[in-house]
Amino acid sequence: MTTLLINIKELIQVREASIKKVSGKEMSILPTIKNAFLLLENDTIIDFGSMDDVPSSIDNIIDCTGKMILPTWCDSHTHIVYAGNREQEFVDRINGLTYEEIANNGGGILNSAKKLQETSEEELYKQSAVRLEEVMKLGTGAVEIKSGYGLTVDAELKMLRVIKKLRENYKLPIKATFLGAHAFPAEYKNNKEGYINLIINEMLPKIAEENLAEFIDAFCETGYFSVEDTDRILEAGKKYELTPKVHVNQFTTIGGVQVSVKHNALSVDHLEVMNTEDIEALKGTQTMPVALPSCSYFLSIPFTPAREIMNAGLPLALATDFNPGSTPSGNMNFVVATACIKMKMTPEEAINAATINGAYAMNLSDEVGSITKGKKANFIVTKEILSYGAIPYNFGSVLIDSVFINGKAI
Ligand code: NIG
Ligand code: FE
Protein backbone atom coordinates (compact mmCIF):
# COMPACT_ATOMS: atom_id res chain seq x y z
CA MET A 1 0.00 0.00 0.00
CA THR A 2 1.24 3.50 -0.84
CA THR A 3 0.66 6.26 1.72
CA LEU A 4 1.34 9.95 1.16
CA LEU A 5 1.68 12.43 4.03
CA ILE A 6 1.25 15.99 2.80
CA ASN A 7 1.56 19.59 4.04
CA ILE A 8 4.09 18.61 6.70
CA LYS A 9 5.04 21.87 8.37
CA GLU A 10 8.64 20.63 8.79
CA LEU A 11 10.13 17.21 8.02
CA ILE A 12 12.96 16.75 10.49
CA GLN A 13 16.21 14.72 10.34
CA VAL A 14 16.11 14.30 6.57
CA ARG A 15 19.20 12.55 5.23
CA GLU A 16 19.55 11.93 1.50
CA ALA A 17 22.35 9.44 2.00
CA SER A 18 22.28 6.93 4.82
CA ILE A 19 24.84 8.00 7.43
CA LYS A 20 25.93 5.93 10.42
CA LYS A 21 26.24 8.69 13.03
CA VAL A 22 27.03 12.38 13.55
CA SER A 23 29.97 13.58 15.63
CA GLY A 24 31.35 16.79 17.18
CA LYS A 25 30.26 19.96 15.37
CA GLU A 26 28.08 18.01 12.91
CA MET A 27 25.76 17.32 15.82
CA SER A 28 24.52 20.91 15.72
CA ILE A 29 23.19 20.42 12.18
CA LEU A 30 19.69 18.97 11.89
CA PRO A 31 18.61 18.90 8.23
CA THR A 32 14.92 19.61 7.61
CA ILE A 33 12.50 20.38 4.76
CA LYS A 34 9.71 22.89 5.37
CA ASN A 35 6.29 22.35 3.78
CA ALA A 36 7.14 18.79 2.84
CA PHE A 37 5.64 15.48 1.75
CA LEU A 38 6.61 11.96 2.79
CA LEU A 39 5.81 8.89 0.69
CA LEU A 40 5.65 5.33 2.05
CA GLU A 41 5.33 1.98 0.35
CA ASN A 42 4.08 -0.48 2.96
CA ASP A 43 6.64 -0.32 5.79
CA THR A 44 9.33 1.68 3.95
CA ILE A 45 10.08 5.34 3.21
CA ILE A 46 10.33 5.62 -0.58
CA ASP A 47 10.38 9.37 -1.16
CA PHE A 48 10.17 12.80 0.44
CA GLY A 49 10.60 16.39 -0.63
CA SER A 50 9.04 19.83 -0.91
CA MET A 51 5.27 20.13 -1.49
CA ASP A 52 6.22 21.83 -4.78
CA ASP A 53 7.16 18.36 -6.03
CA VAL A 54 4.38 16.33 -4.38
CA PRO A 55 3.44 13.19 -6.35
CA SER A 56 -0.09 12.95 -7.72
CA SER A 57 -2.67 10.15 -7.97
CA ILE A 58 -2.08 8.51 -4.63
CA ASP A 59 -5.22 7.25 -2.90
CA ASN A 60 -4.18 7.08 0.69
CA ILE A 61 -3.40 10.66 1.74
CA ILE A 62 -2.84 12.00 5.25
CA ASP A 63 -2.94 15.76 5.71
CA CYS A 64 -0.42 17.02 8.29
CA THR A 65 -1.12 20.76 8.12
CA GLY A 66 0.56 22.49 11.09
CA LYS A 67 2.24 19.28 12.20
CA MET A 68 5.85 18.14 11.99
CA ILE A 69 7.36 14.72 11.36
CA LEU A 70 10.57 13.30 12.80
CA PRO A 71 12.00 9.77 13.00
CA THR A 72 10.93 7.80 16.05
CA TRP A 73 13.29 7.87 19.03
CA CYS A 74 15.99 5.21 19.12
CA ASP A 75 16.37 4.17 22.76
CA SER A 76 19.66 2.26 22.87
CA HIS A 77 19.79 1.50 26.61
CA THR A 78 16.90 0.08 28.64
CA HIS A 79 16.10 -2.54 31.25
CA ILE A 80 12.37 -2.68 30.37
CA VAL A 81 12.02 -6.34 31.40
CA TYR A 82 11.71 -6.31 35.20
CA ALA A 83 9.26 -7.48 37.84
CA GLY A 84 7.32 -5.22 40.18
CA ASN A 85 8.93 -1.96 41.24
CA ARG A 86 11.21 -0.40 43.85
CA GLU A 87 8.96 2.36 45.11
CA GLN A 88 9.97 1.68 48.71
CA GLU A 89 13.61 2.46 47.84
CA PHE A 90 12.44 5.67 46.18
CA VAL A 91 10.83 6.70 49.47
CA ASP A 92 13.94 5.56 51.40
CA ARG A 93 16.03 7.87 49.25
CA ILE A 94 13.60 10.75 49.82
CA ASN A 95 14.12 10.09 53.53
CA GLY A 96 17.90 10.40 53.19
CA LEU A 97 19.41 7.03 52.28
CA THR A 98 21.74 6.97 49.27
CA TYR A 99 21.49 4.62 46.27
CA GLU A 100 24.72 3.01 47.48
CA GLU A 101 23.47 2.55 51.07
CA ILE A 102 20.27 0.94 49.81
CA ALA A 103 22.27 -1.47 47.61
CA ASN A 104 24.62 -2.32 50.50
CA ASN A 105 21.57 -3.20 52.65
CA GLY A 106 20.49 -5.85 50.11
CA GLY A 107 18.25 -3.54 48.10
CA GLY A 108 18.98 -2.27 44.62
CA ILE A 109 19.66 -4.70 41.79
CA LEU A 110 19.48 -7.71 44.17
CA ASN A 111 16.01 -6.63 45.27
CA SER A 112 14.84 -6.60 41.63
CA ALA A 113 16.57 -9.96 41.01
CA LYS A 114 14.69 -11.58 43.90
CA LYS A 115 11.36 -10.30 42.57
CA LEU A 116 12.16 -11.43 39.04
CA GLN A 117 13.26 -14.90 40.11
CA GLU A 118 9.88 -15.35 41.85
CA THR A 119 7.90 -14.14 38.81
CA SER A 120 6.76 -16.50 36.04
CA GLU A 121 7.86 -15.94 32.46
CA GLU A 122 4.24 -15.21 31.44
CA GLU A 123 3.76 -12.61 34.15
CA LEU A 124 7.15 -11.02 33.39
CA TYR A 125 6.16 -10.80 29.72
CA LYS A 126 2.85 -9.17 30.63
CA GLN A 127 4.44 -6.49 32.81
CA SER A 128 7.17 -5.79 30.24
CA ALA A 129 4.74 -5.56 27.31
CA VAL A 130 2.78 -2.84 29.13
CA ARG A 131 5.99 -0.80 29.45
CA LEU A 132 6.95 -1.39 25.83
CA GLU A 133 3.54 -0.26 24.60
CA GLU A 134 3.78 2.83 26.79
CA VAL A 135 7.15 3.90 25.35
CA MET A 136 6.04 3.20 21.77
CA LYS A 137 3.13 5.60 22.28
CA LEU A 138 5.71 8.11 23.54
CA GLY A 139 7.53 7.86 20.21
CA THR A 140 10.12 5.12 20.67
CA GLY A 141 10.48 3.14 17.45
CA ALA A 142 13.58 1.04 18.16
CA VAL A 143 14.79 -0.20 21.51
CA GLU A 144 17.55 -2.18 23.20
CA ILE A 145 16.64 -4.27 26.25
CA LYS A 146 19.07 -5.83 28.73
CA SER A 147 18.92 -8.85 30.96
CA GLY A 148 20.66 -8.52 34.34
CA TYR A 149 17.86 -8.78 36.90
CA GLY A 150 18.00 -12.59 36.81
CA LEU A 151 21.50 -13.33 38.10
CA THR A 152 20.93 -17.10 37.96
CA VAL A 153 21.20 -19.23 34.84
CA ASP A 154 17.44 -19.83 34.73
CA ALA A 155 16.36 -16.29 35.52
CA GLU A 156 18.77 -14.70 33.01
CA LEU A 157 17.44 -17.07 30.33
CA LYS A 158 13.88 -16.22 31.39
CA MET A 159 14.56 -12.50 30.88
CA LEU A 160 16.15 -13.04 27.48
CA ARG A 161 13.27 -15.28 26.34
CA VAL A 162 10.84 -12.53 27.33
CA ILE A 163 12.83 -10.07 25.20
CA LYS A 164 12.68 -12.55 22.32
CA LYS A 165 8.92 -12.87 22.70
CA LEU A 166 8.53 -9.08 22.71
CA ARG A 167 10.51 -9.00 19.45
CA GLU A 168 8.19 -11.58 17.92
CA ASN A 169 5.02 -9.77 18.98
CA TYR A 170 5.88 -6.11 18.36
CA LYS A 171 6.88 -4.59 15.07
CA LEU A 172 9.66 -2.26 16.16
CA PRO A 173 13.33 -3.36 16.05
CA ILE A 174 14.29 -4.79 19.48
CA LYS A 175 17.90 -5.68 20.33
CA ALA A 176 18.83 -7.93 23.26
CA THR A 177 21.84 -7.48 25.53
CA PHE A 178 23.12 -10.05 28.03
CA LEU A 179 23.95 -8.31 31.33
CA GLY A 180 24.62 -11.25 33.64
CA ALA A 181 27.42 -9.09 35.09
CA HIS A 182 25.02 -6.57 36.62
CA ALA A 183 25.65 -7.35 40.32
CA PHE A 184 27.11 -10.19 42.38
CA PRO A 185 24.32 -12.33 43.90
CA ALA A 186 24.45 -12.48 47.73
CA GLU A 187 25.57 -16.12 47.73
CA TYR A 188 28.64 -15.16 45.67
CA LYS A 189 29.55 -12.17 47.86
CA ASN A 190 32.74 -13.89 48.98
CA ASN A 191 33.22 -15.89 45.78
CA LYS A 192 33.17 -13.35 42.96
CA GLU A 193 35.32 -15.65 40.86
CA GLY A 194 32.58 -18.28 41.17
CA TYR A 195 29.91 -15.97 39.75
CA ILE A 196 32.11 -14.83 36.86
CA ASN A 197 32.79 -18.50 36.07
CA LEU A 198 29.03 -19.13 36.13
CA ILE A 199 28.53 -16.30 33.60
CA ILE A 200 31.31 -17.55 31.34
CA ASN A 201 30.88 -21.30 31.60
CA GLU A 202 27.11 -21.71 32.02
CA MET A 203 25.16 -18.62 31.02
CA LEU A 204 27.04 -17.64 27.86
CA PRO A 205 26.95 -21.06 26.13
CA LYS A 206 23.19 -21.43 26.78
CA ILE A 207 22.44 -17.92 25.55
CA ALA A 208 24.46 -18.52 22.41
CA GLU A 209 22.78 -21.87 21.82
CA GLU A 210 19.32 -20.27 21.85
CA ASN A 211 20.63 -17.17 20.03
CA LEU A 212 19.14 -14.93 22.72
CA ALA A 213 21.48 -11.91 22.60
CA GLU A 214 23.47 -9.80 20.18
CA PHE A 215 25.28 -7.64 22.74
CA ILE A 216 27.09 -8.17 26.04
CA ASP A 217 27.24 -5.70 28.92
CA ALA A 218 28.81 -5.45 32.40
CA PHE A 219 28.35 -2.92 35.21
CA CYS A 220 32.01 -1.84 35.40
CA GLU A 221 31.99 0.13 38.65
CA THR A 222 33.53 0.31 42.10
CA GLY A 223 31.78 -2.32 44.23
CA TYR A 224 30.43 -4.14 41.17
CA PHE A 225 32.59 -5.54 38.34
CA SER A 226 36.23 -4.45 38.22
CA VAL A 227 38.09 -3.58 35.03
CA GLU A 228 39.72 -7.02 35.14
CA ASP A 229 36.32 -8.74 35.61
CA THR A 230 34.89 -6.71 32.73
CA ASP A 231 37.89 -7.59 30.54
CA ARG A 232 37.33 -11.31 31.14
CA ILE A 233 33.60 -11.14 30.52
CA LEU A 234 33.90 -9.14 27.29
CA GLU A 235 36.64 -11.48 26.09
CA ALA A 236 34.41 -14.48 26.82
CA GLY A 237 31.53 -12.83 24.94
CA LYS A 238 33.73 -12.44 21.87
CA LYS A 239 33.82 -16.23 21.48
CA TYR A 240 30.06 -16.08 20.85
CA GLU A 241 30.27 -12.95 18.66
CA LEU A 242 28.57 -10.78 21.29
CA THR A 243 29.41 -7.09 20.77
CA PRO A 244 30.09 -5.10 23.96
CA LYS A 245 27.87 -2.22 25.16
CA VAL A 246 29.09 -1.39 28.63
CA HIS A 247 27.89 0.42 31.79
CA VAL A 248 30.88 2.61 32.75
CA ASN A 249 31.73 5.73 34.76
CA GLN A 250 28.37 6.07 36.53
CA PHE A 251 29.85 6.86 39.93
CA THR A 252 33.63 6.51 39.53
CA THR A 253 36.22 6.47 36.77
CA ILE A 254 38.20 3.25 37.08
CA GLY A 255 39.19 2.45 33.49
CA GLY A 256 35.84 1.19 32.21
CA VAL A 257 36.01 3.33 29.07
CA GLN A 258 39.50 2.05 28.25
CA VAL A 259 38.64 -1.64 28.67
CA SER A 260 35.50 -1.19 26.57
CA VAL A 261 37.42 0.54 23.79
CA LYS A 262 40.02 -2.23 23.91
CA HIS A 263 37.19 -4.66 23.06
CA ASN A 264 35.79 -2.41 20.30
CA ALA A 265 32.60 -1.73 22.26
CA LEU A 266 29.69 -0.42 20.21
CA SER A 267 28.86 1.95 23.07
CA VAL A 268 29.91 3.07 26.52
CA ASP A 269 26.94 4.16 28.59
CA HIS A 270 26.35 6.46 31.62
CA LEU A 271 29.59 8.53 31.67
CA GLU A 272 28.39 10.80 34.48
CA VAL A 273 31.99 10.96 35.78
CA MET A 274 34.55 11.53 33.01
CA ASN A 275 38.17 12.68 33.16
CA THR A 276 40.36 13.85 30.28
CA GLU A 277 41.91 10.39 29.84
CA ASP A 278 38.44 8.90 29.37
CA ILE A 279 37.61 11.42 26.66
CA GLU A 280 41.00 10.90 25.00
CA ALA A 281 40.46 7.12 25.01
CA LEU A 282 37.31 7.53 22.90
CA LYS A 283 38.95 9.60 20.16
CA GLY A 284 39.51 7.73 16.91
CA THR A 285 37.34 4.79 18.00
CA GLN A 286 34.02 3.48 16.70
CA THR A 287 32.55 3.47 20.23
CA MET A 288 29.46 5.63 20.81
CA PRO A 289 29.31 7.51 24.13
CA VAL A 290 25.74 7.28 25.52
CA ALA A 291 24.30 9.66 28.13
CA LEU A 292 21.32 8.77 30.31
CA PRO A 293 20.04 12.09 31.69
CA SER A 294 16.88 10.69 33.30
CA CYS A 295 19.11 8.55 35.54
CA SER A 296 21.12 11.62 36.61
CA TYR A 297 17.85 13.43 37.26
CA PHE A 298 16.24 10.64 39.29
CA LEU A 299 19.34 9.87 41.39
CA SER A 300 20.56 13.49 41.66
CA ILE A 301 24.00 12.55 40.36
CA PRO A 302 26.09 14.57 37.86
CA PHE A 303 24.97 14.82 34.25
CA THR A 304 27.24 13.47 31.50
CA PRO A 305 29.52 16.30 30.28
CA ALA A 306 27.98 16.47 26.82
CA ARG A 307 29.71 19.66 25.74
CA GLU A 308 33.17 18.35 26.60
CA ILE A 309 32.45 15.14 24.72
CA MET A 310 31.18 16.94 21.60
CA ASN A 311 33.98 19.56 21.75
CA ALA A 312 36.43 16.66 21.55
CA GLY A 313 34.90 15.85 18.15
CA LEU A 314 33.11 12.80 19.52
CA PRO A 315 29.52 11.71 18.86
CA LEU A 316 26.96 11.37 21.66
CA ALA A 317 23.74 9.38 21.93
CA LEU A 318 20.88 9.79 24.40
CA ALA A 319 18.88 6.92 25.92
CA THR A 320 16.48 6.41 28.83
CA ASP A 321 18.02 3.61 30.96
CA PHE A 322 14.38 2.67 31.83
CA ASN A 323 14.74 0.45 34.93
CA PRO A 324 13.11 0.07 38.36
CA GLY A 325 15.99 1.45 40.43
CA SER A 326 17.72 4.42 38.88
CA THR A 327 15.29 5.48 36.11
CA PRO A 328 11.67 4.33 36.31
CA SER A 329 10.83 6.22 33.11
CA GLY A 330 11.11 5.30 29.44
CA ASN A 331 10.09 8.69 28.10
CA MET A 332 12.55 9.77 25.39
CA ASN A 333 10.81 13.16 25.09
CA PHE A 334 11.78 13.85 28.68
CA VAL A 335 15.34 12.63 27.95
CA VAL A 336 15.66 15.08 25.04
CA ALA A 337 14.27 17.93 27.15
CA THR A 338 16.52 17.11 30.11
CA ALA A 339 19.59 16.93 27.83
CA CYS A 340 18.81 20.47 26.69
CA ILE A 341 17.91 21.84 30.11
CA LYS A 342 20.58 20.18 32.24
CA MET A 343 23.35 19.19 29.81
CA LYS A 344 23.09 22.34 27.69
CA MET A 345 22.67 20.47 24.45
CA THR A 346 20.87 22.41 21.73
CA PRO A 347 17.59 20.96 20.39
CA GLU A 348 19.44 20.00 17.18
CA GLU A 349 22.18 18.17 19.09
CA ALA A 350 19.70 16.41 21.36
CA ILE A 351 17.48 15.25 18.46
CA ASN A 352 20.53 13.93 16.57
CA ALA A 353 21.65 12.14 19.74
CA ALA A 354 18.22 10.55 20.28
CA THR A 355 17.69 9.42 16.69
CA ILE A 356 20.60 8.66 14.34
CA ASN A 357 23.22 8.25 17.09
CA GLY A 358 20.86 6.09 19.14
CA ALA A 359 20.36 3.92 16.07
CA TYR A 360 24.14 3.57 15.73
CA ALA A 361 24.39 2.44 19.37
CA MET A 362 22.14 -0.52 18.45
CA ASN A 363 23.73 -1.30 15.07
CA LEU A 364 20.55 -0.04 13.41
CA SER A 365 21.77 3.01 11.45
CA ASP A 366 20.78 1.36 8.16
CA GLU A 367 17.18 0.78 9.28
CA VAL A 368 16.06 3.67 11.48
CA GLY A 369 17.18 7.01 12.95
CA SER A 370 16.57 9.34 10.00
CA ILE A 371 14.10 10.12 7.22
CA THR A 372 15.98 8.39 4.39
CA LYS A 373 14.75 6.45 1.37
CA GLY A 374 14.82 2.73 2.05
CA LYS A 375 14.64 3.09 5.84
CA LYS A 376 11.73 1.84 7.91
CA ALA A 377 8.68 4.12 8.01
CA ASN A 378 8.98 4.62 11.78
CA PHE A 379 8.19 8.23 12.61
CA ILE A 380 6.43 10.63 14.96
CA VAL A 381 3.74 13.05 13.77
CA THR A 382 3.65 15.95 16.23
CA LYS A 383 0.66 17.98 17.28
CA GLU A 384 0.48 21.43 15.76
CA ILE A 385 3.62 23.15 17.08
CA LEU A 386 5.41 26.40 16.26
CA SER A 387 8.89 24.86 15.97
CA TYR A 388 10.66 21.59 16.78
CA GLY A 389 12.34 23.39 19.68
CA ALA A 390 8.97 23.00 21.44
CA ILE A 391 9.84 19.33 22.10
CA PRO A 392 12.50 20.19 24.72
CA TYR A 393 11.11 23.66 25.55
CA ASN A 394 7.64 22.49 26.57
CA PHE A 395 9.13 19.72 28.71
CA GLY A 396 6.52 17.51 30.31
CA SER A 397 3.93 18.19 27.60
CA VAL A 398 3.01 15.40 25.22
CA LEU A 399 3.40 16.93 21.78
CA ILE A 400 2.83 13.70 19.87
CA ASP A 401 -0.23 13.36 17.67
CA SER A 402 0.55 9.85 16.37
CA VAL A 403 3.38 7.35 16.04
CA PHE A 404 3.94 5.27 12.90
CA ILE A 405 5.73 1.95 13.10
CA ASN A 406 6.41 0.11 9.83
CA GLY A 407 4.22 2.59 8.00
CA LYS A 408 1.16 2.16 10.24
CA ALA A 409 -0.18 4.40 13.01
CA ILE A 410 -0.12 2.49 16.32
O1 NIG B 1 21.91 1.51 34.43
N1 NIG B 1 23.87 1.03 36.81
C1 NIG B 1 23.49 -0.09 36.70
N2 NIG B 1 22.31 -0.53 36.34
C2 NIG B 1 21.12 0.24 36.20
C3 NIG B 1 20.35 0.43 37.45
C4 NIG B 1 20.25 -0.73 38.28
C5 NIG B 1 19.20 -0.65 39.35
O2 NIG B 1 19.28 0.15 40.28
O3 NIG B 1 18.27 -1.47 39.24
C6 NIG B 1 21.46 1.56 35.56
O4 NIG B 1 21.31 2.63 36.15
FE1 FE C 1 21.47 0.77 32.65
Automatic annotation (TrEMBL):
Binds 1 zinc or iron ion per subunit. Its EC number is 3.5.2.7. Gene3D superfamilies: Metal-dependent hydrolases, Urease, subunit C, domain 1. It catalyses: 4-imidazolone-5-propanoate + H2O = N-formimidoyl-L-glutamate. Its cofactor is Zn(2+); Fe(3+). GO terms for biological process: L-histidine catabolic process to glutamate and formamide; L-histidine catabolic process to glutamate and formate. N-formimidoyl-L-glutamate binds at residues 149, 323, 325. This is Imidazolonepropionase.
